[in-house]
Amino acid sequence: MMGFWKPINYTTMPNYDYRCEDCDHVFEVFQKMSDDKLTTCEKPDCDGSVKRLLGSGSGVIFKGSGFYQTDYRSDSYKKGAESDKSQH
User: At 29, phi and psi to the nearest 5?
Assistant: First the structure.
């Protein structure tokens, strides 16, 4: 099986959303973080200026325990919270 599997050699780039201030066209562009921001709308009939929208960027997904404040609660806190639930 040697030589059958080849690793994919590519770089992952974040995607950025832009909105045109003239025509309100929203579009997505894959760019390196070091690339300059776009300044004009991608539509051929519009030369409006664009703004980069805030977004999730790289799309990090957290899986498993340990990512929430409640994951680190003490046993006594958890027991108190359970008794509060049962009283209501």
Answer: -135, 135
Dist. CA 9–CA 59, nearest whole Å: 20
Cα(80)–Cα(21) distance, integer angstroms: 53
Q: What is the Cα–Cα distance from 72 to 10, expressed in whole angstroms?
A: 38
Token duo for residue 6: 């080849």
pLDDT of residue 67: 59
Quickly tell me which residue has 């974040």 as its tokens: 14
pTM for the whole thing?
Answer: 0.50
CATH architecture of the region 8-58: Single Sheet (2.20)
How many CA atoms lie less than 13 Å away from 9 in the CB half-sphere? Answer: 2
